[in-house]
Each structure stands twice: as C-alpha cells, then as structure tokens.
Design a protein that fits this description.
The complex is a heterodimer of chains A (about 120) and B (about 170). Chain A is built from one helix and no strands. Chain A is mainly alpha-helical. The longest helix of chain A is centred in the middle third of the chain and has 67 residues, at about 25-95. Chain B has a domain at about 35-130. Chain B starts with about 30 loop residues before the first helix and ends with a helix. The chains are: A mainly alpha (about 120), B mainly alpha (about 170). The interface between A and B is large, with 42 and 53 residues. Chain A: Pfam families: GRIM-19.
C-alpha cells in the first residue's frame, strides 16, 4: 500500500484571516473631520465668551454710573432715621446715650416700634 | 404656617420723620430700576464730576460719610434727576420704549438694542449726551453698536446703530 502523500503542488493555503470589507472614511479623514468640527466649536465658544465679557463690562459700568445716586439716597435715608431716633431718645430719656465705642456711623440692627403708626 | 399672625411686620416700623430744617431738602430720584438702567450711561456722562466728588468724599470719610457727604449726595441726586427730567422732556417715547423693553427682558441690555439706538440718537441730538462704555479694546466695535447680538432672542437686528459724528462732539 503506497503512503498517503500531499497532492501535487502542495495543499491550498488555509484561510485564517477574516475577510471583511473596510467601511467608511479613512481614519485620517475622520480625524481631520473631528479636528475641523472641534475648531469650529472653539471658534464659536471664544466669540460667545468675548461677547459675554463685553456685556458684563457694559453692565458693570452702568452700575458704576448709578451707584453714587443710589448710595446718596440711601445715606440720606439713614441719616434721617438716625436723627429722628436721636431726637426721640432725647425726648424720652433726656440725654443721648452712646451705644457704640466708635464715632463711625453704625447701621442700626434694632428698631424701636412706635406705639402708634406715624404718618 | 399661614395661619400664624406675623408679629414683626414692617408696617409699624415706618419712620416718616423728615430731615431737620438745617439740612436742605432735595427731591429724590423716584425712578425704578429699568429707567435708571436705561439712563445710566447718560447720568454717567453728565454727572461724572459730581459722582466722583461724592465717591471721593465717601472714601475720605470712612464710617462718617453718611453725615459728611450729605452735600455731595444732594448734588449727585440733583444732577441725576436733571438728566432723567431732560430725557423725559425731549425723548419720552424712545425712553419709555427702551425701559419697558428692558423690564420685559430681564434687564438684559442686549435684547433691546434697536430701542436703545433710537434713544441714544434722540438723547445725543437733544441733550448732547453720548453712551460710551469705557475700557473698550481699540480693535473692536463697542458691543452696543454691533448689529448682531449673539445672545439675543433675535440675534440679527434690524435698524441702524447710532454712531454720533465725532466732529460735532469734539
């Protein structure tokens, strides 16, 4: 009995690789596309942030122009209340007590409730 | 909760005692926030010196400014009031349109540019006051003169920004 030998020309190659089609764009193209997209996003973001900074500066300056007027009104009101309070105290106690050990103006943290609502 | 009677309400805390006669009277601004915001740059343009005086006085009298700076404060209030009065006299419609727009748009200046341009034009022509935002970078358009406002509900605006002619103001 003759020995079993390979066929003439050898065996066929064994197919071990998967044979799938490469789909979509090339990786380099995808990378470049992502880059472009991101740069566009950054561009818009930068523009938006700069515009917001401008808005903020505008708002800040409008406030700066208004602060003296608002503060002056508030100060006058505080002085009015303070003087009225001192006068009331003088009338009731006969003298003005010094509550704080300082000459600074201290916004009152208490309020004396009048018996009758003043008009 | 709601059934409890509030024991400390503001009603009985009113103190309506006027200032003593020794301190001159001044009429308060009596303006709410939207008109103030709308007129703020004109107030700044006309009253800058008074404002600076007042702030300097407050700075030099720490803790006593409430009493020492009453005179400067009256000047500030008088000046700001004069601006509001003048705008009311000559540009009432534009002024009203702008501050009502501000009131309706959460006080966002960029939502009301067309109304603002009209107001700026009227105020510049009648009172000679110009809106300038300080510290503007040299290579950029001031934000209140741009025709597109990115964050506005309608980013592309109709109307022309008002740019005063430099030859007149200088």
């Amino acid at each position: 009995m003759p020995q079993d030998m390979p066929p003439v020309g050898g065996y066929d190659a064994v197919q071990y690789k998967r044979n799938l089609p490469a789909r979509g764009f090339r990786p380099a193209a995808i990378l470049a596309g992502c880059g472009v997209f991101m740069i566009y996003g950054w561009y818009k973001l930068t523009k938006g942030i700069r515009e917001q900074n401008e808005y903020a500066r505008e708002k800040m300056w409008s406030r700066i122009h208004l602060i003296p007027a608002l503060q002056a009104e508030e100060d006058r009101d505080q002085v009015r209340r303070y003087l009225a309070d001192q006068a009331r105290e003088k009338e009731l106690l006969g003298e003005n007590l010094k509550v704080y050990h300082t000459d600074r103006f201290v916004r009152p943290t208490y309020a004396a409730t009048p018996e009758n609502v003043t008009k | 909760m709601a059934a409890r009677v509030p024991t400390l309400n503001q009603k009985s805390l009113y103190d309506t005692t006027p200032l003593p006669e020794s301190i001159p009277k001044v009429k308060e601004l009596g303006t709410s926030s939207a008109p103030l915001l709308s007129a703020s740059f004109f107030i700044g343009a006309r009253c800058k010196d008074y404002n600076d005086d007042y702030m300097q006085c407050k700075n030099e009298n720490p803790g006593r400014g409430e009493f020492e700076c009453l005179k400067e404060g009256r000047r500030v209030t008088r000046c700001a009031r004069s601006v509001i009065d003048d705008i009311n006299k000559s540009c009432l419609d534009q002024f009203r349109a702008h501050w009502q727009c501000l009131d309706n748009n959460n006080h966002q200046l960029w939502q009301c540019r067309p109304a603002e341009w009209k107001l700026n034009k009227c105020v510049f022509e009648n009172l000679g006051l110009e809106k300038v935002v300080p510290d503007q970078p040299k290579n950029s358009t001031p934000v209140h003169l741009r025709k597109t406002q990115i964050y506005a509900h309608n980013p592309i605006l109709r109307g022309e920004p008002f740019i005063p002619e430099k030859t007149q103001s200088q």
